Amino acid sequence: MELPSGRSKAVTDEARTLAWAYLSRVAEPPCDEIAALVGDVGPLDAAHRVAAGEVSDALRERTAARRDIDAAQADLDLLERRGGRLITPDDDEWPTLAFASFGGSAVRERPHGRAPMALWAIGPARLDEAAERAAAIVGTRAASGYGEHVAADLAAGLAEQDVTVVSGGAYGIDGVAHRAVLAAEGLTVAVLAGGIDVLYPAGHSSLLHRIGNSGLLLTEYPPGVRPARHRFLTRNRLVAALGTATVVVEAGVRSGAANTAAWARALGRVVCAVPGPVTSASSMGCHTLLRTGAELVTRAEEVIELVGRAGEFADEEPRPIGPLDALSDAEKQVYEALPARGVCSVDEIAVASGLAPTAVLGPLAMLEIAGLARRDDGCWRLVRRPASPR
Amino acid sequence: MELPSGRSKAVTDEARTLAWAYLSRVAEPPCDEIAALVGDVGPLDAAHRVAAGEVSDALRERTAARRDIDAAQADLDLLERRGGRLITPDDDEWPTLAFASFGGSAVRERPHGRAPMALWAIGPARLDEAAERAAAIVGTRAASGYGEHVAADLAAGLAEQDVTVVSGGAYGIDGVAHRAVLAAEGLTVAVLAGGIDVLYPAGHSSLLHRIGNSGLLLTEYPPGVRPARHRFLTRNRLVAALGTATVVVEAGVRSGAANTAAWARALGRVVCAVPGPVTSASSMGCHTLLRTGAELVTRAEEVIELVGRAGEFADEEPRPIGPLDALSDAEKQVYEALPARGVCSVDEIAVASGLAPTAVLGPLAMLEIAGLARRDDGCWRLVRRPASPR
C-alpha cells in the first residue's frame, strides 16, 4: 500500500488516517488478530505489516483476499465529498467511555466485544458527547401498532431529556424511534450494517439523510460494503455499545433486537425490555428477555433512571389516594364495623370489630374528626362509604 | 363457655372442635396473642382461659368484646346443615405443608404470616391434597378483556395439569379463573373474607355454590361475619399461603391483588405476574411487581414449572428454523457474499466475504450440498435467498 512518508505532524496524521482506513477494509470485522496487532504496534506499522504479508498465519489468512486492495484514499475522498469524517482512536471524539470496557488491551479477555478499527461518520454530532448519555431503542421490523406507539413515546421522552437515541435505521421499531427523536428535535444516531454510501433499507434513505444532517450516521464498514446477515449482527454490537442501556420495544422469538440485547448484556450494558400482551407474537422476545434478567421499562423516565446521571430517578407513579388511606389499622377496623345503614352502640361496634369496647373510642373520635363517622344520640353512624374493596 | 367434659376420645375430640370454633370467633384474626397462647397450652386450655379472662392484658383486651359470646355449637350446627366441616390443626387434612413456614412455633418470628385458628370449609376436596400442588390466580375486579382472556387461559391450563387454582371469588380476574377451572373440570378453591354463609359478592353466589359442590369454599371467619376491608386483606394472606405460586394477571396501581402478592412474597412463596400493554392501567400493578422481582409468566406451563413437582419444566417456545440455521459462521459469510443476481468467481467471493480464497472453497461446497449455492461454469450463484435479516 502507498502511504505518505515524512516526519511532520500533519503528514503523520494523514498517514495514520490512511492506515486506519486501510485496516478498516482489509479484514472483515470483527477481527481479533488485527485488533491485537494494532494494539501492539499501532495502526501505521500494522497496516504496513498486513500489506506486506508479514503477520501471523491467522491474520495473513484473514487479510489474504483484500490486502492488495488499497482503497483508503479513494474511500476518504468519497467520505469528504459527502461531508463525513473517519473517527479513529486518534480522535478526541472517539468514545473512550463507551468502548473502554472492551477496547484496546481488553481485546483478548473479551474477544467478542471488540471496538471497531474506525468509524465512518456523517453528521454534526460529536460521537463522544452523543454517547455520554445515550440509550439504544431497538425492535422488530414487524412492529405492531402498539409497539410503534410505545417506541415513539419512549424515543420522544428520551430526546426531551437530552438522551441520545441510538438505533439501527431499520424498518419498524428502529425507524419509529429515529423519527420520533427528529420530530422532538433531539439527537439520534443510526449505526449502519454497510458502507456509509449504501443507505439501507432503501425506503429509509430519506430518513437516514435527515439523521446524517442533524445527528450522526455511523458505520465500521468502508464505503461500498453492502449490508449482509453477519454484518447486521456485527453492527448490533455497536448499537449496544453506544447505549448505556438497550431498550427492546418489541421482538419476536427470533429477532435481531434480541441479538442486540445479547450484545448489551455481554458488554455489561443494561438490557431493558418493554412488556406487551402475552397474546402478541411481537412481544414474545421481550418477555423472554424479561424472564432472563432484563429490566422491565414502561416509560422514558424509567430508562432515564438507568442511563441518566447520578441522582436522576423516575418519579413514583401517581397513586390515587382514598379517604381511608390516612387511617390506622384500628381506625379502619372500627370504620368497617359501622353498619352501612342505621346506627349502633359502642358495644356493638366492639363486637363487630373484634376490638375491646375501650379500644374503639379513640378510633371513633378520629373517624369523627375525619368526617367518616358521626355521633348520633349516643350511638354512631357512618358518614359516607367508598366503593367496597376487593 | 360451655364445653363437654369427660375423658373418652370422642368427647375430647368434640370438645377440641368446640374450642377451635370458639377461638375462631373470639378474637379478630390475625391475632398474635391468641396464636401464641394456643401454641403454648393447646386449644382446650386456651379457650377456657380466654373465656375466664385469665390471659395476658393484651389478649384480654383483644377478646373483651366477644369472650362471652359462645356461638361455637350453633356455628358448627349451621356448618353441618350446609354439609361443611371445621378443619383444624387436629385434622389430617390441615395443610401442614402450606402453613409450615409460618404456623405453630414460628408465629413469633413471622407475626404477620400466622396460620388461621381453624378453617370453616364446604366442599368435597381434601384441603391438604388440594394445596399440595396449587397456584393462586388473582387480579383486579376491573379486568380488561385481555386480562379475562389470559386469566381463563392460565386457569384452564393449570386445571388440565392437575394444579389447584386458588382465588378470592371476587368479580373480574378471580371469577374468570374459578369459572375456567370449573369448565375444565379441575379443582378450584375460593377463600372468603366473611362467614361461609355470607356469600360475597352476591352476584357470585351461584358460582360460589358450584365451587362448594366440586372444590372447596374456605374461610377463617365464623358464620355470620360480614366481609370488610381489613378482612379482604387478611383473607388475601390465605390465598397466598395456599398457592405455591401467586399469579397476578391484572392489577391497577392500588389493588388487592398486589396485597396478595405482597403476602406471597412475605411467606416465601413465588410471586408471578402477567405482563400487558404498558398503555393499560389494569396492567400497571403487574409491571410494578415485575420491576420489583416478580417472575414474568405468559402461559400455564411457566407457572407449572414453578409449582410443579421436581422435573416438570416448560417446553421451550417453538422457534421457527431458517435454512441458514445449520450453517457455520464461515458458510454464512460466504453465503452472504454471493450476489443476489448473476454469478461471481471464487476470488470475488473471497473479497466480498473477507475470507481467503482457499477458505471459501469448503463453505461453497457445503452450500452446494445444502442447495443454497450452485456452481455455474466455474463461477457460483445463489440458489435462493430468504428474507433479509434485521
UniProtKB/TrEMBL annotation, chains A, B:
Residues 55-82 form a coiled coil. The keyword Ribonucleoprotein does not apply. Residues 323-378 form the DprA winged helix domain. One of its GO terms (biological process) is DNA-mediated transformation. Keywords: Coiled coil. Residues 86-306 form the Smf/DprA SLOG domain. Belongs to the DprA/Smf family. This is DNA protecting protein DprA. It comes from Mycolicibacterium rhodesiae (Mycobacterium rhodesiae).
